[in-house]
Design goal:
Blueprint: H1 2-22, E1 49-53, E2 68-76, H2 79-96, H3 101-120, H4 128-152, E3 160-170, E4 175-184, E5 191-200, E6 205-206, H5 209-212, H6 218-235, H7 242-248, E7 257-259, E8 263-267, E9 282-286, H8 301-310
Parallel strand pairs: 2-3
Antiparallel strand pairs: 1-2, 3-4, 4-5, 5-6, 7-8, 8-9
Helix pairs in contact: 2-4
Length: 317
């Protein structure tokens, strides 16, 4: 009985081994093809960022005459532009508000102490925003001192100040940042300004108006701008004729420019070419008039093609 049982178990084992041997071999798992990774886009040729507001502490105040101040700086992927715009903001503040020499000296000492502290402790990382907030602090004190002085004179006027940068062109053909500012610091009326800064991202340099021009084309640009000025005077009904207007407000070429989609914009400040009532005038010269004035890389593609076709071709032999 035991012998038959062992024979049965042996038979089942042999049968199982035979079945396993008859099974087709399992295919090796195929390795999944590696997905092609897209290269990270090169952002060095573009200006990407936005304005960030500086944190400013104002004393508690109620009423309609409380001072208002708003300061923004540029926070972008191009640190050299951020630093440049920071400096221009400080220059504007310096033109608007006076800082006492004693305060300037105290600021310098404080900056040196701060720098020494940073060298000793790498953990104390100072961001550009924090650094800028420290640099504008003296101007904030001057702003509040002015407000206090005006209120001492029984003035119920509300003083205000705003500076804010904005990216207009991201990099083709040049990167452009506009710095807008407005202020009312007492007196008959406030003030405003709009300054454009244009950069070549490859060379990391500021691009001036002269850099845009073909050789010996500055007089031609002045002529075109003067014609745009005459049209602006008459369209704005500022005088019966341009000759009379220029007795008081002479034309001059502005170096403050912006390459817009419509043409070269020449921006003027208050009182540059007109009275306060005209605000911040701007003259626009269409690209079609600038085909032989601007370098090819600063012209839109269509205008550049037309300009190239207009060039005289060498005679075929």
């Amino acid at each position: 009985m035991v012998k038959h049982k062992n024979i049965g178990l042996f038979s089942i084992l042999v049968l199982s081994m035979g079945l396993v041997a008859c099974q087709p071999p399992q295919a090796e798992p195929k390795a999944e093809p590696e997905k092609a990774t897209k290269p990270a886009p090169d952002l060095s040729a573009k200006l990407i960022g936005d304005a960030e507001k500086l944190k400013i502490q104002l004393p508690d105040c109620n009423g309609k005459s409380c001072p208002e101040i708003s300061l923004d700086r540029l926070n972008s992927n191009q640190s050299f532009i951020d630093e440049f715009i920071d400096q221009k903001i400080l220059e504007q503040l310096g033109a608007m508000l006076s800082i006492e020499p004693e305060q300037q000296k105290a600021n310098l000492v404080a900056s040196e102490v701060q720098a020494a502290s940073e060298v000793k402790s790498l953990a104390n990382v100072q961001t550009p925003q924090i650094k800028m907030q420290q640099q504008v602090e003296p101007y904030l004190h001057a702003f509040l001192a002015l407000d206090k002085e005006l209120k001492t004179l029984s003035s119920a006027q509300q003083i205000s100040l705003m500076i804010k940068p904005k990216i207009l062109n991201s990099g083709q053909p040049i990167a452009t940042v506009v710095l807008n500012s407005s202020s009312y610091l007492g007196g008959a009326h406030g003030a405003a300004a709009q300054q454009y800064y244009n950069f070549d991202l490859k060379s990391k340099k500021l691009v001036s108006l002269d850099d845009l021009l073909l050789p010996k084309q500055k007089p031609r640009l002045e002529q075109l701008a003067h014609e745009a000025f005459k049209t602006w005077v008459m369209d704005s009904k500022l005088a019966d004729n341009v000759q009379d207007y220029e007795q008081a407000w002479k034309f001059k070429l502005s170096e403050n420019y912006y390459l817009s989609k419509d043409g070269l914009i020449l921006q003027y400040g208050e009182y540059d070419i007109g009275p306060y009532v005209v605000g911040l005038p701007r003259l626009t010269i269409p690209y079609t008039q600038l085909e032989t004035v601007l370098k090819a890389q600063y012209l839109p593609a269509k205008v550049e093609a037309v300009a190239s076709e207009a060039q005289p071709k060498a005679a075929s032999k």
